[in-house]
């Protein structure tokens, strides 16, 4: 089963970033499977993987922002911190034995769709409009 379906409509037009988003979606879908199968052991293993990958991806985006002097870097970084902190708090709860699977995935799905379409699309538009070719 698939929780989030990747499509070209989610593309920001930067190859490296698109493939990271796609991979992130794949990780979320995999965790979704584990939750559906009530595989708590796997869920506990996958949450930190998700957090680590999110961190890697956020760092890659923020590096692009610095490099091209993106003017909305501060507000964008705040959104990244918000997700990271929230995911860590879900992980803490899961480690204490709480069954957070469904709630965590719902949060992730909403966050990702909203973040992509609002904040990530914003830099995509900015770079495009300013004819900045991101490498
Ligand atoms: Fe972002
Ligand atoms: Fe992103």
Q: How many beta-strand segments?
A: 0
Which class do the helix and strand fractions yield?
A: mainly alpha
Top CATH class? Mainly Alpha
Order of helices and strands: HHHH
Work out the helicity level.
over 70%
Mean pLDDT: 96
Task: Work out the count of structural domains.
Answer: 1
Task: Give a description of the structure.
With 135 residues, this protein is mostly helical. The chain has a single domain, classed as Four Helix Bundle (Hemerythrin (Met), subunit A), CATH 1.20.120.50. Helices cover 76% and strands 0% of the residues. It has helices spanning 15-36, 40-67, 73-95, 101-129. α2 runs antiparallel to α3 (73-95) and α3 (73-95) packs antiparallel against α4. The longest helix is centred in the C-terminal third of the chain and has 29 residues, at 101-129. It is elongated. The N and C termini lie far apart (34 Å). The mean pLDDT is 96. One fe (ii) ion (FE2) binds at residues 21, 57, 61, 120.
Entry summary:
The protein has 135 residues and is mainly alpha-helical. It has one domain (12-129): Up-down Bundle (Four Helix Bundle (Hemerythrin (Met), subunit A)). 76% of the residues lie in helices and 0% in strands.
């Amino acid at each position: 089963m698939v929780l989030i379906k990747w499509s070209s409509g989610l593309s920001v037009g930067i190859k490296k970033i698109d493939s990271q988003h796609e991979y992130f979606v794949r990780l979320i879908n995999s965790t979704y499977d584990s939750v559906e199968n009530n595989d708590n052991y796997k869920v506990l293993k996958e949450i930190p993987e998700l957090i680590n990958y999110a961190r890697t991806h956020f760092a890659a985006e923020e590096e692009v922002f610095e490099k091209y002097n993106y003017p909305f870097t501060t507000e964008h970084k705040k959104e990244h911190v918000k997700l990271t902190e929230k995911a860590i708090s879900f992980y803490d709860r899961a480690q204490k034995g709480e069954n957070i699977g469904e709630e965590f995935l719902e949060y992730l799905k909403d966050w990702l769709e909203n973040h992509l379409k609002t904040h990530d699309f914003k830099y995509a538009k900015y770079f495009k409009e300013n004819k900045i070719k991101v490498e």
